[in-house]
Design a protein that fits this description.
heterodimer; A: 268 residues; mainly alpha; two-stranded antiparallel sheet; 5% strand; B: 549 residues
């Protein structure tokens, strides 16, 4: 296609040759399932179409002149664009952009653990008239003596069991608190909802499925209503403590020198 | 009343369209023919769904059901999907690369007519109750035409021959268009448009054209072998004379599975153009999108036998094709994530094209997940040839492809006609179609999982299939209503749609720099491109893209 005279442009000329050729090929094949006459007509049409096609392009391509039309005007857009520069804040950020410090998770775990322990002791007092019952039951996770102890023995004070239960409870509380600190910034909406309600219910389901192996004594004697209540108490308190902490920005947008921990010259 | 002397007659207009070699008119004729056959194939689907709505139903006979099933599948793949997609490629690729026409305009016209005549030949088989010149009735061997069902002993008359010959004819047209697209993309790009600056639409159609060249060949070979079997007594697929029925399956699926990607990659192309424009953001990860598209093209050539896990291949064969099928999900996943990343943080405009693309994202995700499930050979052994597979591939081809086609029609209709489609009618179309489509095909997953085989004419009561089939058939009503809205919208907008202007969506590719509809020569002066968004550069001379690419 080339430029034509003034006000016009050359374009390939319309032709029926391709249509006739295609019709010929179709009839040629259709003759297989209809009649030989159809194939003969197809051959004739194919030859006519092919010759016409050749004559369209040889010795010189047949073109027609097309009148030029007014071109579409492209108006500059009034809208400006904010562009992100790599390395600056909020450019292709890895979520979360801000996290809670580890200390917030540890504090949350400790606070949640205290709330949970308090509620567990209340449960022992109300249900078994002994503050030690629930503590000994938790200790049974790591003590075969406690696992096999009768219910009366579980209501008695036992220093070893107290230490063991404290260790288990403290370690788990701090670890779960740290987990809260890491996970809560990733959740939408209010962290207390996820940490206080959703997460406890989820791990209660997990514990219900696995407790028979982890702590048979607890599994045999567990009272699920109280169990869920203590988990939610932990979740609410830990979640609130974590959520109320000040967030700190991740290092992802800090300069390389800062992220690498390189000490640079102070210009002041 | 007298006609305006300057106004051409209907015959003159018809003649202009019939003899045209303009890529835009041919593209529109491809799309129009595809839409006509879409209505035909949709009607066939509706007949099947009425038949399956109740157990022991006798709405149609088993023979008619088989014909409906065969013609629905064949028509949808060869005479709806491919023509519409090649039509869009025809219309848009030259405009997007800044060319004045396709590389071979007359071959382009020939390819279109071959495609249309192939479809006409297939439906010609309906003429004559027991055969016009021995033609028999419509094909009834399924769109896959498994041997030995296609042998003379089991398929009398010429119905199967019509199927074979129509696909041979349309296959020639597809190959012609593929050659044309490759030549246009490689040779006719405007100054500055390097391969790395081509729109994703052009890249994807380039990959599709390569795939068509590769995969139509084995299909054509198989069709010729079958024709030789049926007309000259050869025994390629005759198991009683040393032939192999499984050989047909290999030939067919070497074509058939890449064909799914030939169909869905242009759908990806539509989404890749529409989503950025309606999110007001550059496509996320352009190089990865290109690499993923090419990867999909390559990997899809090596997954065909996952359709044949139950034919008794070796464990090594099953393992290879299971793994390759899982691997093809990786570049596909990359594309889905990139579309989501493009939408993320964007200033989204929920116009009808974008609605269809969002529907596509959700539904294609479901299709991909069930595809990965079926790639696991033991799982496939349980569900092969069940309605679970039917549901899966309809989620791919309707939930994926057809939704993007509708999105593309709403998006480029203003460019082709100079008028906008009505947004309210478009929303009715979208919501009815979403509800109808999911109501039809989601339940079929469950029907398949409880054991409903595909391709059955009816089923006995009390097997648990009734509810799922009734839901599926009810969904067809919604889909049909949606299509009525769509057609009404098209007709109404053609007559008195709101004027669109050259660039109604504030888009960035070259086709929007021309008037609507574009002139026959596309561009008076060939554009010079400096970035992936040339129109953006023209609209924002103070802040062009080429500074950042």
């Amino acid at each position: 296609m080339a430029s034509g005279g003034p006000g016009s442009i050359h374009a390939p000329a319309p032709t029926a040759a391709p249509l006739v050729t295609a019709f010929g090929v179709t009839l040629l094949l259709a003759g297989l399932v209809t009649s030989a006459i159809v194939s003969v007509v197809g051959v004739v049409a194919f030859v006519v179409g092919a010759v016409g096609w050749f004559r369209e392009v040889l010795p010189r391509e047949h073109e027609e002149e097309v009148a030029l039309e007014p071109a579409a005007a492209i108006a500059p857009s009034p809208h400006a664009v904010q562009r992100l520069a790599a390395g600056t804040a909020r450019h292709r950020a890895r979520l979360p952009v801000e996290v809670y410090p580890y200390s917030a998770g540890i504090k949350g775990g400790i606070a949640g653990g205290i709330a949970m322990a308090a509620l567990a002791v209340v449960h022992g007092l109300l249900a078994h008239r002994s503050p030690w019952y629930t503590i000994n039951l938790l200790a049974a996770a790591g003590s075969s003596a406690m696992t096999n102890a009768p219910e009366a023995a579980l209501s008695q004070f036992d220093a070893q069991a107290l230490l063991l239960a404290f260790a288990i409870h403290a370690v788990l509380s701090v670890l779960v608190g740290l987990l809260y600190g890491a996970l809560l910034p990733m959740f939408p909406w209010h962290p207390a909802f996820w940490g206080g309600l959703v997460a406890p219910l989820m791990w209660t389901g997990l514990i219900a499925a696995a407790l028979d192996v982890v702590n048979p004594a607890l599994n045999a004697r567990i009272e699920w209503g109280w169990f869920v209540a203590t988990q939610i108490a932990f979740g609410l308190v830990a979640g609130l403590v974590v959520a109320r902490s000040s967030r700190i920005a991740t290092f992802q947008h800090a300069p390389l020198a800062v992220r690498s921990g390189i000490e640079t010259q102070d210009d002041r | 009343m007298h006609r305006d002397a300057d106004r051409p007659s209907v015959l003159a207009i018809l003649h202009d369209w019939v003899v045209t070699v303009d890529h835009k008119r041919l593209g529109l004729m491809y799309i129009a023919s595809g839409l006509v056959f879409f209505l035909v194939a949709g009607s066939e689907a509706a007949i099947m769904r009425i038949q399956l709505a109740l157990p022991n139903n006798h709405f149609v006979s088993p023979q008619v059901f088989n014909r409906m099933m065969t013609l629905h599948g064949t028509t949808m793949v060869f005479f709806v999907g491919m023509p519409i997609l090649l039509g869009f490629a025809n219309y848009l690729v030259p405009l997007m690369v800044g060319a004045r026409d396709m590389a071979f305009p007359r071959l382009n016209a020939f390819s279109f007519w071959m495609s249309l005549f192939g479809a006409c030949l297939l439906y010609f088989s309906f003429l004559g109750a027991e055969g016009l010149y021995g033609g028999g009735t419509a094909p009834d061997v399924g769109w896959f035409a498994y041997a030995p069902l296609t042998a003379r002993a089991f398929s009398r008359g010429n119905s199967t021959d019509y199927w074979t010959l129509s696909l041979l004819v349309s296959g020639i047209g597809s190959i012609g268009t593929a050659v044309n697209l490759l030549a246009t993309t490689l040779c006719l790009r405007c100054p500055g448009m390097t391969l790395g600056k081509m729109p994703l639409f052009v890249w994807l159609n380039f990959v599709v054209a390569c795939m068509i060249l590769i995969v139509i060949s084995p299909l054509t070979a198989a069709q010729i072998m079958l024709t030789l079997d049926r007309f000259l007594g050869a025994h390629f697929f005759d198991t009683q004379a040393g032939g192999s029925a499984v050989l047909w399956q290999h030939f067919f699926w070497i074509f058939g599975h890449p064909e799914v990607y030939v169909l869905i990659l242009p759908g990806f192309a539509f989404a890749s153009e529409i989503i950025p424009v309606f999110s007001r953001k550059v496509i996320f990860g352009y190089p990865f999108m290109v690499a993923a598209s090419v990867s999909i093209g390559f990997i899809s050539l090596g997954v065909w036998a996952h359709h044949m896990f139950t034919v008794g291949m070796t464990p090594a064969g099953n393992t290879f094709f299971a793994v390759s099928t899982m691997i093809v999900g990786v570049p596909t996943g990359i594309k889905v994530f990139n579309w989501l990343a493009t939408i993320w943080g964007g200033k989204i405009r929920f116009a009808t094209p974008m609605l269809f693309c969002i529907g596509f994202l959700f539904q294609f995700l479901c299709a991909g997940l069930t595809g990965i499930m079926l790639s696991v050979a033991p799982f496939d052994w349980q569900l092969s040839d069940s309605y679970f597979v039917v549901a899966h591939f309809h989620y791919v081809l309707i939930g994926g492809l057809l939704f993007t086609i509708f999105g593309a029609i709403y998006y480029w209709f203003p460019k082709a006609t100079g008028r906008r489609l009505d947004e309210t009618l478009g929303r009715w179309h979208f919501w009815l179609f979403v509800v109808g489509f999911n109501l039809t095909f989601a339940p079929l997953h469950f029907a398949g999982m409880i054991g409903m085989p595909r391709r059955i004419y009816t089923y006995q009561p009390g097997r648990g299939f009734e509810l799922w089939n009734q839901l599926a058939s009810a969904g067809v009503v919604f889909q049909a209503a949606a299509i009525v809205f769509f057609l009404w919208n098209v007709v109404r907008s053609l007559v008195r749609g709101a004027p669109a202007g050259a660039d109604p969506w504030d888009a960035w590719t070259l086709e929007w720099s021309t008037s609507s509809p574009p002139p026959p020569y596309n561009f008076e002066t060939l554009p010079v491109v400096r970035s992936r968004r040339p129109l953006w550069d023209l609209k924002h001379p103070d802040d062009p893209d080429w500074r950042y690419e």
